[in-house]
TrEMBL record:
Gene3D superfamilies: tt1808, chain A. It comes from Streptomyces lydicus. This is Putative restriction endonuclease domain-containing protein. Transmembrane segments: none annotated. Residues 11-171 form the Putative restriction endonuclease domain. PANTHER family: SLL1072 PROTEIN, SLR1083 PROTEIN. CDD domains: DUF820-like.
Amino acid sequence: MTAVDERRMTELFENLEVPEGIKIELLRGEIVMMAGPDLVHNLIIEEVLDQIPRRKWHRLQTQDIDILSETSEPQPDLVVLDRDATPDSGRLMPSAAVTMLVEVVSRTSVQRDYLLKRSIYAAGRVPVYLIIDPVMGQCVLLTEPAGSGDEADYAVQRITKFGDPVPLPLLDVDLATGEFGTLKGVRPHRLP
């Protein structure tokens, strides 16, 4: 895609009128639309929010992220950043200000969360990417981003089954996962 095409896509994305209940993201130059989240998804996010201390961390939902060097404006399920590192305003949060991004896998987001966003968030140098997967009953913690563009990835991956704690040393939290629900009737996958 040329620079002109990328600017035009970003402009179209920013001016798109989205029906209520639909979430959109710009991921590597493509506009992706999704239906609203499942109840299991929302309850998992609530559990995570309750465990991250509000005094030290902002825990934001519906926050668009500016991934430098990418034609991407993802809207993760949860954005965690140090209260001292927060910009004063703006629609786009610079990825450099973010400590952790969380995505909860849905019936239709498996490939996007495990592959595409993993690469995009690593390219944006987001220190911690946590994938919570109610399809497989597991959490995948990704740290140490490296590389650029499509080749960007996380050097360290840790898989934890629901019920076991997920250590989040950057946040000084051991995330309890025993209350995380699972999605019923969804075909298992083989990622990560």
